[in-house]
Design goal:
Oligomer: heterodimer
Strand content of chain A: 5-15%
Strand content of chain B: under 5%
Structural class of chain B: mainly alpha
Largest sheet of chain A: 9 strands, mixed
Keywords (chain A): Disulfide bond, Endoplasmic reticulum, Glycoprotein, GPI-anchor biosynthesis, Membrane, Transmembrane, Transmembrane helix
Membrane topology (chain A): Multi-pass membrane protein
Transmembrane segments (chain A): 20-41, 371-389, 409-429, 449-467, 487-516, 528-550, 587-605
Function (chain A): Component of the glycosylphosphatidylinositol-anchor (GPI-anchor) transamidase (GPI-T) complex that catalyzes the formation of the linkage between a proprotein and a GPI-anchor and participates in GPI anchored protein biosynthesis. Binds GPI-anchor.
Shape of chain A: globular
Number of helices of chain A: 21
Shape of chain B: globular
Subunit structure (chain A): Heteropentamer. Part of the GPI-anchor transamidase complex, consisting of PIGK, PIGT, PIGS, PIGU and GAA1. Interacts with PIGK.
Radius of gyration of chain B: 22 Å
Chain lengths: 606, 415
């Protein structure tokens, strides 16, 4: 404890920190950004490998051959779907029963807090159909799930048909050690959420569902299949789940291993892997793939039906068939063989997948960056906040504020309370006030909710001018320093906790918030700094992410289209929170926005 | 001073009532940092016993709010008495010229000490840890109330009541046994009996107090036997505390160790860990025999750090005392670091619990790391206050500006 108790060494250290504080902060920020961008550079990444011994060698020969039968089944399913005008429940039940599965249905209903304009639904009612293939000689303690969504229109017919064909093929095999559940869910994520809640006897999102009649044991892994064409050119793997949670890397390794074995082109984020890592294009390609994963993880949505399984500690991934313009086409039989191989490997598991990484970034399917490599990038940004906090001027004012005579703590309390009340208003009011807004303004409910949120956000900017009048005579030098100290500590703890759960969200927020908050004082040019602060506020961060995302998926948008996308992102965020329990919207409204408001208060401290 | 105290009590009760009615109540009562098997389990035993007599004391929120109010009131009155005591002693010491000439700025004035009892009550009632404990309906509030009443009776000079309350506190969880020493030292100081093992007056009073304490303990234990009809509760309750069979994670240091070790060594390590709680009494009593109230604070802190099933309610009790030592602020060296560590750890506890239990991405090592850091922060806090207290005493007798033998300025280091 020499450093903590020896006064001379402490003086030397504090002297160093005082002199070099700003240069160290700038160096740390640049180092953090450079480190993050350097993660995509191939020599800094590791090659993926199978960690789980039980899924070791791929020595089996896949024998699935009913691809053509699956395609004709797809047409039948399509016809029945059109006739039923939704999910053809009786046909599915009969189809599964004739293949020897134990079939059950579950009906569910959910009223969304406001209409979803992307998917055009408000009052959702549906049925899930699932069939259980019982393992012939094993105790019924574990299960695997293969799911295909029943989507309106022409999408995903082949997926459901392939599911049924696989069910028929699997029924004739004797080597199954786990029960296999074939689930066809309606209304994509809402149906999956209802099924999972029914299966695990929980009710965390206020969904109404009928209880499940048949059950199969603890689910070890799940695969979601999305296939909309008879032939495909590549298979895309989707890993990002709710709240940025990712499945175990072994699942991605498994998929990649089988794609290599069967000669199927596999992509991640829709991008194919390149071999020329030492050229600029090769590096930018890998960096773009990684940035796409970071953006998708940060928004906290589930990007495939698999995303909701992760919350129940079930490793799940979505496999999406893509048909684009390439010469080499893969038929349904090969896809069936790939799925058969993957499920047979998962069948061999002795315990849940836990050997490989849970936190990683993928610049390509065969290269990964683990948490030990990417966390220092965030650490460097967080260190800036801590350096600013230990800046001796601030430290001294902390000591003064703790003296019994100074009013330090009370001056801080008012801005903190008012900022948090604004945050609570931003969280609660948009959804609760939508009827009132629709009465008074010519907008739809969704627009009302989103525009109310933006209005409250902007109204918060007017606050400093009012809170200053409430605190009479508190405009002292000491006051803003104490507030800045509190706000910096609060931001550091908040970003730290966020980065632990969802690294991408924490990193993106840190990149935009840390520079302005570390350098803010009331003595800067107010107009310029106010503009900079607003341009780097959380709402604008979301806007930039929307534009960057559109650039990266090679579908750039104009400003007005980008603005419409931004509004739909906000409405989706609020819906995700209400429907599935995503934490991004409450985090931003209740914690990040009040924290930013506290810094806004400091800027306008008179 | 009654008006601010009443306002404080009203605010505290409102906060607790609001939280009780909200949906957060079940969430909080499931948190392992707030409720330990000891707090919840004992409730079952005692509640059942008294339920047979038609009394159900642990139902409802009012009971827990009232215990918090009693604790706050008892602490308020104790600190008021203590402050009067301190000021009186300072006056006598000044009159008898025991302080050195240049330490005038270290002396305490009534103006500075006026708001301290209110701050102590505020620190206890508005501490988020206390509010969480109350909303979770943990019996920690009751433990704290009894210890606070014990401190109040001790400071008021009533040896019999103090002995009875200490026996009650010991009956609930063994660890307040270590508070016998500071209470004894306080009474000896108050009755002007010198702490000398050769004097008969010392032994006479010690035996009196010990008799009152042990007698009350025997009576309470006998009463429990009478109510329950068997002696089973002794091995179940006290055996549970000592042998630590339940390894649910909490903010203490025991669970991880005991989850890792082999059965063969379990007895040895239980003894080592339990001795650790009781052991510090002896050296601390020797060093702080002139300052029994500070010794009570140190003992409560050591109990809440090293006990087998600590919860945040125990932490809140010793933290309530901190405003009483606000005059030591200038000698504290690590207070900023400690507060940051404690704040960050309190925020990280639920995050890492979520990552371990729900997301499955972390494991017990992560949660235990935060536990270790939290306990390190607490130990550093207690050690810092100890250093500051001793340093102030040293400066009072030897002068504020210390000079080495050759006349240059000296620095004081705790080795």
């Amino acid at each position: 404890m020499g450093l903590l108790s020896d006064p001379n060494r402490r003086k030397a250290l504090t002297g160093l920190l005082t002199r070099l504080n700003t240069p160290i902060c700038i160096v740390c920020y640049l180092a953090g950004i450079v480190w993050f961008m350097g993660l995509a550079f191939e020599p800094f990444t590791l090659r993926t490998y199978m960690s789980e011994n039980a899924m070791g060698s791929t020595m089996v020969e896949e024998r699935f051959s009913s691809g053509e039968r699956a395609l004709s089944l797809a047409k039948e399913f399509d016809a029945h779907k059109r006739k039923a005008g939704g999910m053809p429940v009786e046909w599915l039940v009969k189809a599964m029963q004739s293949r020897g599965l134990e079939v059950f249905t579950q009906s569910f209903s959910r009223k969304l807090p406001f209409p979803d304009e992307n998917k055009e639904r408000y009052m959702v009612r549906g049925t899930n159909v699932y069939g259980i293939l019982r393992a012939p000689r094993a105790p019924r303690t574990e299960a695997l799930v293969i799911t295909a969504p029943c989507s309106p229109g022409n999408t995903n017919n082949q997926a459901v048909a392939l599911l049924l064909a696989l069910a028929q093929y699997f029924r004739n095999q004797i080597y199954w050690a786990k029960d296999i559940i074939f689930l066809v869910n309606e209304h994509d994520l809402i149906g999956t959420q209802a099924w999972l809640e029914g299966y695990h006897h929980t009710n965390i999102t206020g969904m109404e569902y009928s209880p499940l009649q048949g059950r199969a044991g603890s689910i070890q892994a799940a695969l979601s299949l999305e296939l909309s064409s008879d032939v495909i050119t590549s298979l895309d793997l989707v890993l990002e789940g709710l709240n940025g949670q990712l499945p175990n890397l072994d699942l991605a390794n498994l998929f990649y291993a089988f794609c290599q074995k069967l000669g199927v082109l596999c992509t991640i984020q829709g991008k194919l892997q390149r071999n020329d890592w030492d050229t600029a294009e090769g590096y930018t390609h890998a960096a773009q793939t990684m940035m796409l994963m970071v953006l998708k993880q940060a928004c906290g949505r589930s990007w495939g039906d698999h995303g909701l399984f992760l919350r129940y500690h079930i490793e799940a991934a979505s496999v999406r068939g893509i048909n684009s313009f390439r010469h080499y086409k893969t038929d349904a039989t090969t896809i069936g063989r790939l799925l058969e191989g993957m499920v047979r490997k998962l069948n061999n598991l002795l315990e849940r997948l836990h050997q490989s990484y849970f936190f990683y970034l993928l610049p390509s399917l065969s290269r990964f960056v683990s948490i030990g490599y990417y966390m220092p990038a965030f650490g460097l940004l967080a260190v800036i906040l801590l350096l600013r906090v230990s800046f001796p001027g601030l430290c001294h004012c902390f000591s003064v504020s703790l003296q019994p005579s100074s009013p330090g703590v009370l001056t801080v309390l008012t801005p903190v309370v008012i900022s948090h009340l604004t945050g609570v208003a931003l969280y609660l009011l948009p959804v609760h006030l939508q009827e009132m807004a629709v009465e008074h303004f010519p907008v739809s409910e969704t627009e009302a909710v989103v525009l109310t949120a933006i209005a409250i956000y902007t109204a918060g900017l007017a606050l400093p001018h009012n809170t200053q009048r409430l605190l009479s005579g508190e405009g002292t030098e000491q006051g803003w320093k104490v507030l800045k100290l509190t706000a910096l500590l609060y931001l550091a703890v908040l970003l730290g906790c966020t980065a632990l759960i969802n690294f991408s969200l924490g990193f993106i927020l840190a990149v935009t918030l840390v520079p302005i908050t570390a350098s803010i004082t009331p003595h800067m040019p107010k107009a310029l700094y106010a503009v900079v602060m607003v341009l780097l506020s959380p709402a604008f961060t979301i806007l930039y992410c929307v534009f960057i995302y559109q650039e990266l998926i090679e579908a750039p948008v104009s400003v007005s289209e980008g603005w419409m996308l931004f509004l739909s992102v906000i409405s989706q965020g609020i819906l995700d929170h209400a429907l599935y329990g995503s934490l991004v919207y409450p985090l931003l409204a209740l914690f990040i926005y009040p924290c930013w408001l506290m810094f806004w208060n400091i800027l306008f401290w008179n | 001073m009654a008006a601010p105290l009443t306002l404080l009590l009203i605010v505290a009760v409102t906060i607790r009532a609001v939280l009780f009615r909200s949906s957060l109540a079940e969430l909080i009562s499931a948190r392992v940092e707030v409720v330990s098997p000891l707090n919840a389990w004992k409730r079952v035993v005692e509640g059942l016993a008294l339920l047979d007599l038609g009394v159900s004391p642990y139902s409802g929120d009012v009971f827990h709010e009232v215990t918090d109010g009693i604790t706050a009131l008892a602490l308020y009155l104790s600190i008021q008495t203590y402050n009067k005591d301190v000021f009186r002693k300072q006056k006598y010491a000044l009159e008898s010229d025991r302080y050195s000439a240049d330490c005038l700025e270290l002396l305490r004035s009534p103006k500075e000490m006026f708001y301290i009892p209110l701050k102590v009550a505020m620190f206890y009632l508005l501490n988020p840890f206390t509010i969480l404990s109350c909303v979770a309906k943990s019996t920690c509030g009751l433990n704290n109330a009894i210890i606070a009443l014990f401190i109040f009776c001790t400071l008021k000079g009533s040896a019999l009541l103090s002995g009875i309350l200490l026996a009650l506190a010991t009956y609930q969880s063994i660890y307040p046994l270590t508070l016998f020493a500071p209470a004894l030292l306080f009474f000896l100081q108050r009755l002007y009996i010198p702490v000398n093992l050769r004097r008969s007056s010392f032994w006479f009073f010690t035996l009196q107090y010990a008799f009152m304490y042990v007698g009350s303990l025997v009576v309470i234990t006998g009463l429990s036997f009478f109510l329950l009809g068997s002696w089973d509760f002794i091995p179940s309750v006290y055996g549970f505390i000592f042998s630590v069979p339940d390894l649910t994670p909490n903010i203490g240091l025991f669970w991880y160790f005991f989850a890792e070790m082999f059965e063969h060594f379990r007895l040895f390590f239980s003894c080592v860990f339990q001795i650790n709680v009781f052991f510090y009494t002896i050296p601390l009593s020797i060093k702080l025999k002139e300052h029994p109230v500070f010794l009570i604070f140190m003992q409560i802190a050591i109990i809440s750090i090293f006990k087998s099933y600590p919860t945040v309610g125990d932490v809140a009790l010793y933290m309530a005392f901190l405003p009483a030592w606000s005059h030591l602020y200038r000698f504290l060296r690590n207070i900023f670091l400690v507060s940051c560590v404690l704040l960050a750890c309190s925020a990280l506890f639920p995050v890492l619990w979520h990552l371990w239990i729900y997301a499955g991405s972390a494991n017990s090592n992560f949660y235990y790391a935060i536990t270790l850091l939290f306990n390190f922060g607490q130990i550093l806090l207690v050690a810092d206050y100890f250093y500051a207290y001793l340093r102030r005493e040293h400066h009072l007798t030897h002068g504020l500006y210390l000079k080495k033998k050759d006349g240059t300025e000296a620095t004081l280091v705790l080795k």
